[in-house]
Write a structure and sequence with these properties.
Keywords: Oxidoreductase. This is NADH-dependent alcohol dehydrogenase. Pfam families: ADH_Fe_C (PF25137), Fe-ADH (PF00465). This protein is of the alpha/beta class. Helix content is 48%, strand content 10%. The chain contains 15 helices and 8 strands. Helix 4 packs across helix 5, helix 7 packs parallel to helix 11 and helix 10 crosses helix 11. The longest helix has 23 residues. Bound molecules: 5,6-dihydroxy-NADP and zinc ion (ZN). The site of 5,6-dihydroxy-NADP (NZQ) has 34 residues, from helix 2, helix 5, strand 6 and helix 7.
Amino acid sequence: MQNFDYYNPTKIVFGKDTIKRLDNLVPRDARLLILYGGSSAEKNGTLDEVRCALANRTIHEFGGIEPNPTYETLIKAVEWVRSNEVDFLLAVGGGSVIDGTKFVAAAVHFDGDPWCILEERGRNIRSALPFGVVLTLPATGSEMNNVAVITNKAKQAKRDLINSSVFPRFSITDPTKTYTLPLRQVANGVADAFAHIMEQYLTYPAKGMLQDRFAEGVLQTLIEIGSQAINSPDNYDIRANLMWAATSALNGLIGAGMPQDWASHMIGHELTALYGIDHARTLAIILPANLQIRRESKRGKLLQYGERVWGITSGNEEQRIDQAIAHTRSFFENLGLQTHLSDYNLGVDDIECLIKQLEAHGMTQLGENSDVTLDISRQILHASL
Ligand code: NZQ
Ligand code: ZN
């Protein structure tokens, strides 16, 4: 196991009827800005509940943060916060609104061009405004981590930032708030959480016995509840388990002291930036091909994953690895996510565009061994056709 620091200051307030707790969670004298996405939080009453819980305060609102939040939109929020001396932010929404809020929180105090924050992947953030979260979509884990992913439309770039000053102060995670989700978003959430675990687990054996068992437990939970979350939208216990599994998949615990891959995510971000494919859907395309092309360096973990997560014990090693990858692909397909570039009408010519973008963004040494060169990414993309 590698040395690690584990730090996670986010308070999770989990369960039914928890939005009213905002009154105690947000400082009394806060000059507050609520950030949200399109119309969902207004339509399903979540925003009204939030307004009601904070009725004794002066509240400002900033709506319109889009899925795959854009720099172009967020910079308007930064200016608004600066000119109105807001000192506390509240994100109401899914990963996009939370990530957007993290960027705003960091950019408000930043001297110079705020896009530099993304170019430096957040290393240059010195401080950020405090913020809280009301989560409406279980998927990204953003409600309990220090990561944000922002898209620059003009540059066709989707970049991430990581910094300990952008952990939420608190996150309210009420499973009933997910009941109005379109089933496509539920499927995306299950797939994204699954892929987050795979990025931290499916590398090489690193003697993180507890981390492996945590990871396998969350993977098995997602396999158990994935289709039910889609087929029984108002089953509280299923949605509660999905919500906590998605948070646990990317709050730092399962990955502490472990080698991590993230190549599928980085290649996937280029697919979203160029072609607008939903984040989780890019992972369903890239992850099975990533495992296939890198099966030699991932051999030990692929066998362990096959046996412990899918119960694959028969056949020789090659056959067991084939089965493990096939199960992964079927898992995504059973959720309704397609797993080939051709399903999105993308072909060989598009692969070269994607490779150029990876090169332009410095994504030339990806993966747990930094050995995913542009040529290996190209092979992964060809295997995704
Ligand atoms: O915009 P509104 O109208 O609110 O609708 C949203 C949006 O269209 C809708 N929605 C959310 N909650 C709802 C709801 N509709 C009905 N009822 C509800 N309760 O769902 C749509 C998608 O929302 P979005 O926030 O974009 O989805 P998600 O949570 O999957 O976030 C995706 C973003 O997170 C990034 C992705 O790259 C992408 O930009 N990620 C963030 C990570 C992190 N911070 O750690 C890690 C991930 O790997 C990921 O990269
Ligand atoms: Zn993801």
